[in-house]
Amino acid sequence: MKKEVFLAALLLFFISCKENKNKVAKEAGPTTELLQKGELKSPFFWNAANIYFLLTDRFNNGDTLNDINLNRTKETAVLRGFMGGDIQGITQKINDGYFTDLGINAIWFSPIVEQIHGNVDEGTGSTYGYHGYWAKDWTALDPNFGTKKELEILVKTAHKNGIRILMDIVLNHTGPVTDMDPVWPKEWVRTEPVCEFTDYESTTTCTLVKNLPDIITESDTAVELPDALLAKWKEEGRLSNELDELQVFFDRTKHPRAPRFYIIKWLTDYVNDLGIDGFRVDTAKHVDEKTWQELYSEASYAFNTWKRKHPEEVLDNNPFFMVGEVYGYGISSGREYDFGDKKVDYFGNGFHSLINFELKDDANKDYEAIFSKYSDLLFTELEGKSVVNYLASHDDNNPFDKERKNPYHAANVLLLTPGASQIYYGDESIRSLTIEGAQGDATLRSFMNWRELDSIPLNKKILGYWQKLGKFRNDHPAIGAGRHQRLSKSPYVFGRTFINGEFKDKVVVGLKLPKGKKSLWVKGFFGDGTKLHDAFSKTMVTVENGKVFLDNDFEIALLELAKN
Fold it and tell me: What residues pair up with 120 in beta bridges, in sequence order?
């Protein structure tokens, strides 16, 4: 009898699970996920995302057998050659729990399509395309990074861990011309003039630098595929398949066979085939904005197609996400970027979010000045949209705290400022940004300092601090997407409230708190008798007379409603 009851209960459990999975695929918005351990996980919102950005070649070497390919054996300048990081290395760290422990819910990695085979010197020393921004063939992955099967495994592994994948894409240009990498036909690219950045035209219809052929994205004229690309596909045994797929794409879309539509097709294939959750768009302001709306439309079509084909793998009903790198854009500009002679609203042309170049300067201000400014802008001029904040990146030679002297303050600013956050690999482990002998942006791109994390107590301590804030941010969309409210000036205490449909999230954070006994003013935000949990000290407290009392040596408190 007991056995029959057990089997019946087990059957009901599996039926319930199946119904829940089907429900997730149909609901109109983000849903609350049930973790294996039985705890409810907060729904995911891109406006509150905690994104981890890494250079694929510089993060983790998961397969040493793919370190050298395509005769890329010439000597390079310091940090300007391939160093072995790959797709498998990212997957390994997902499986190790590194991203989960840091509260990461989205990973953005540098482009992984096949790069030019040769090396070039742009004035900072001999360089290979280790960074991924020098495309040779958008339809193939670079063997130094891995295979499409490994990318498929990466995406599935990330999704199983509640992590979204942002693919870094380049539509603006091909890679430089070398002895092994011929220039694309003149119908496809322009090789001059070099951009002057003085107005809209001198920013969009030009090459970023010398020897970086610019795709003629504004053209609607049909063009033939380059002979070199056709020969490459033929040698690889996939010419017929690639041509057939292009025929299907152009028959469906009715787009002209103009350069941009070929590349849009090739890029959105990764979404259609693998369920990539979003694009980080490189050099967005150097392409006419209508192209981005066209890319978004095709990517959304591909994403929805993948969801229909893989209902059991759908995380939620968030739409396809696009964030643009409009170099120099700051949140204070609101919805428009000013070229001098023309203003462009990229938010109205396919982008939900833009990278915010302003926080690295704002980080020197006091917390309330930063937080209230960002909250006000996100709930007025940028209502319904967002920004991705960062303090360091792969091509910003003036990051906040380049010497890594204020890692705790950096964590507080980056992870607690309204908007989405972008941790640049090594922010959390004080990876050095000043490498002797490295020229230009190469100094920002050293290999991830895993050995220091394993051996130096200070690095471990700093990582532990970032992990606590990152997890709290991941657990509470109110941090990134909620309305900010200062509750107390001294000690500094603020609250955030986020409401989306039936989902409601409220948190209180204290910063610059005194060591030892302390009280945090929460009156009007949490009522007397409310039981709270300080996620930083792992202490349970109860609101008394509008205050919360703590006794520890921490200068920070992360208060959330206690779970029953």
Answer: 127
- Cα gap 73→119, rounded to integer Å: 10
Cα dist. 327→338, 440, 443 in Å?
Answer: 12, 17, 20
Tokens of 518: 């302390």
On the question of pLDDT at 200 being above 80, the answer is yes
User: Hey, what are 13's tokens?
Assistant: 């459990």
pLDDT, mean of residues 530-546: 98
The C-alpha atoms of residue 62 and residue 86 are separated, in whole angstroms, by 6
**What are the φ and ψ backbone dihedral angles of 108, each rounded to 5 degrees?**
-115, 120
Which DSSP category does 382 fall into?
T
**404 pLDDT exceeds 50?**
yes
Q: By the 8 A CB rule, do 472 and 463 touch? A: no
pLDDT at 564: 73
> How many CB atoms within 10 Å of residue 398?
9
Cα gap 212→234, rounded to integer Å: 26
Summarize pLDDT for 72-107 with one digit per residue, the tens. 999 999 999 999 999 999 999 999 999 999 999 999
Angstrom distance (rounded) from CA 24 to CA 533: 29
Distances in Å between the alpha carbon of 512 and those of 487, 491, 540?
A: 14, 7, 20
**Which residue(s) pair with 446 in the sheet?**
none
Phi and psi angles of residue 493, each rounded to the nearest 5 degrees, phi first: -135, 135
Greatest Cα pair distance, the chain, in angstroms, is: 83
User: Which of 468, 442, 196, 440 minimizes the C-alpha distance to 339?
Assistant: 196
pLDDT computed for residue 24 by the predictor: 33
Active site residues: 282, 325
Question: Are the CB atoms for 101 and 157 separated by under 8 Å?
Answer: no
Contact (CB, 8 A) for 249 and 153: no
Is the overall model pTM greater than 0.85, yes or no? yes
Beta-strand pair 556-561/531-534: antiparallel
Cβ neighbourhood burial of 148 (10 Å; 0-12, 13-18, 19+): middle
Report the pLDDT averaged over residues 413-433: 98
Q: For residues 63 and 84, what is the distance between their CA atoms, to the nearest angstrom?
A: 8
Q: Is 79 helix (H, G, I), strand (E, B) or coil?
A: coil
* Nearest Cα residue to 63 out of 82, 85, 80: 85
Cα atoms in the Cβ-side hemisphere of radius 13 Å centred on 162: 26
DSSP for 265-305? HHHHHHHHHH---EEEETTGGGS-HHHHHHHHHHHHHHHHH
